[in-house]
Structure formats: C-alpha cells, structure tokens
Design goal:
Leucine-rich repeat, LRR (right-handed beta-alpha superhelix); alpha/beta; 320 residues; 9-stranded mixed β-sheet; Leucine rich repeat containing 29
Length: 320
C-alpha cells in the first residue's frame, strides 16, 4: 500500500509539473482525462497565485528574481512584481510565453483583445477527448473557481496599486525577455527605459522592430550586453540611428537577423569602440569580406572577437 501511495504521489507531481508548461485553456482540457489529471491541473493552476503572493511577501528584500520558463506566467503576475518588488536589480522572464504588452504596460486588456482571446480559447482544442467520449464525467467547476481566485487576487494586489508598469523597477540592471514572443513595440519601446540597465535580452522576439531598438538605445545608456538574436525585423536603419547611443556596449548578439548588412557593421564599428564581442552568425546578408572589413575599426591590441558561423557558407571566428 505504501509503495502504491508513493507511486501515485510521484505521478501526480510529474503530471502537475508537465501541465505547468501549458496555457491555462490546455490545462482545463487535460483535466478531463481522469481524477488524477484533474487534481494535477488544479495544482498547476496555483502557480500564478503563488507568484502574486510571493511578490508582496518579499518586497523589502528581493534583488534577483528568476522566473525563466514559467510559461504560464501571466500579465497579473508581472504587474504585481512591478508593484511590490521595487528593489529588483535582476529580473529574468525568458520563455514566459503568456506575457503580452498589457502586462508590461500595467494596463488592462482592451475589450477587443479580451474578445479575441475568448474566441480563440472557446471550445475544446481537440475534436474528441476522454471527457466528451463519456469515459469520465466532467469534473466540478473548481477550475473555473481557481481562475476567479486569480482574478480576485489580482484586483487586490494590482488594481489597488493602479497596475504598475514594469518601468517602475527603476533599479534594474539585468532584464531577460527571451522568447516572450507576444511582446511588441507597443510595450518594449515605452517600458524598457532603465538608466542603470547593463544586460538586456530581447532575443527570439519576432514582433519587435527598429522602434524598440531605438527606444532601448536612447533610454538605456548603460547597456553593456545586448542580445537580439533572431529579431528578424531589425534593419540597418535602426542600427545606424541607435549605435551612437550605445557608447558602453561590450557584447552584442545579432545571430539570425537576416536583414542586416555591412552598414550595420560599419555603424557599430564607428560608434561602439568598447565592443569586445559581436555575434553575426547566420546573418545571410553579411559576407566574410564585411566581417574582415569590420576589423579595421578596432586597434590591433583589442581583444574583441566576431562570431560569424555560416556567414558566406563558412565558420569564421576572428580575434581582433
């Protein structure tokens, strides 16, 4: 009996952990499998309410907060963090795919946005499932009640604080938004304005454009490490205008930015004289000759390096 109980607990924890990586509508769908899955789905739904509670509890002491890969982390949690954890210097939200512009801006979604999300999530995601085949009766509506708990808690912790924007975290020195693919210029250009920020990652964010790059460059003058790999909408024009505002930049990652050409390298070489490393891997419009020409902007004793794998069909790593 003891072994059976321990086995069930183990499987419960595994299922809850797996479900925590799914969006809330998918977890509701999974809860129809059986009672074990239903309980695991309930447990996974408590994640965001726990973060909301944590934000208020640790407000006076927390400096570093790493929530990377909390893929179901929502806008309310980010707004709670911005309301309570004002002394944060490091915030990592990589792969938090549920985040949208509204969360960073500290405002409620528009009615049009809510209706779009509701329409997208309406109905089952699969044509047939265990629940609608009749193998299991649908569970009671506790999952819906769990959603209401999150909403009520958010009203208490966020709305009473007037839904703080991420820009309230004025002491940030590192911010990681890697793969937060729902974010656009709408929030990045308005919120990422931190005078003390040294490290910023906006990698794998296909919706940002030169507008975000220019805003970041103008309002984050202390930047030393900037990661923009696979931001496919960035262009030479953006870097030509932004490079002069990044005098302290030491490390720049641009791999997979396929619109960039030698003009970007020229702007960076002329303006970013403290640069130590540059990654232009898989930038299809930058050639080996462009990379070699880039060397001329730096003194021979410089220890900077260029990573340019697959540029011109070759692997070229040059120490400057």
């Amino acid at each position: 009996i003891k072994v059976a109980i321990e086995t069930n607990i183990f499987f419960f924890q595994i299922i809850a952990y797996i479900l925590s990586f799914l969006p809330i509508p998918d977890r509701k769908e999974a809860s129809l499998v059986n009672q074990l899955w239903y309980s695991a789905a309930q447990e996974s739904l408590r994640q965001e309410s726990s973060i909301l509670s944590l934000a208020e509890t640790l407000s006076k002491s927390l400096r570093v907060l790493d929530l990377s890969s909390c893929v179901s982390l929502g806008n309310r949690s980010v707004q709670a963090i911005a309301s309570h954890l004002l002394l944060l210097t490091v915030l990592r939200l990589a792969w938090c795919k549920e985040l949208t512009d509204w969360g960073l801006l500290g405002i409620e979604e528009s009615q049009e946005e809510r209706e779009h999300v509701a329409k997208k999530d309406a109905g089952p995601k699969f044509s047939r499932n265990f629940g609608n085949l009749g193998f299991f009766q649908p569970p009671p509506q506790d999952l819906e009640q769990e959603d209401q708990i999150l909403i009520d808690f958010a009203k208490h912790t966020v709305q009473e604080k007037r839904q703080a924007s991420l820009s309230a975290l004025t002491h940030l020195q590192e911010l990681d938004l890697t793969a937060c693919g729902n974010l656009t210029d709408r929030s990045i250009a308005k919120v990422i304005r931190f005078p003390e920020l040294r490290r910023l990652s906006l990698s794998l964010m296909p919706n940002i454009t030169d507008n975000s790059l220019l805003a970041v460059a103008r309002h984050c003058r202390s930047l030393e490490h900037l990661s923009l790999n696979h931001c496919v909408n960035l262009t030479d024009k953006g870097f030509i205008e932004a490079a002069g505002s990044l005098p302290r930049l030491q490390h720049l990652i641009l791999s997979g930015c396929n619109q960039l050409t030698t003009w970007t390298l020229k702007a960076i070489g002329q303006e970013c004289q403290q640069l130590k490393s540059l990654d232009v891997s898989m930038c299809s419009r930058i050639s080996m000759a462009d990379v070699e020409h880039f060397q001329s902007y730096f003194p021979l004793q410089s220890q900077a390096s260029i990573q340019s794998r697959f540029v011109g069909g070759a692997d070229l790593s040059i120490s400057l």
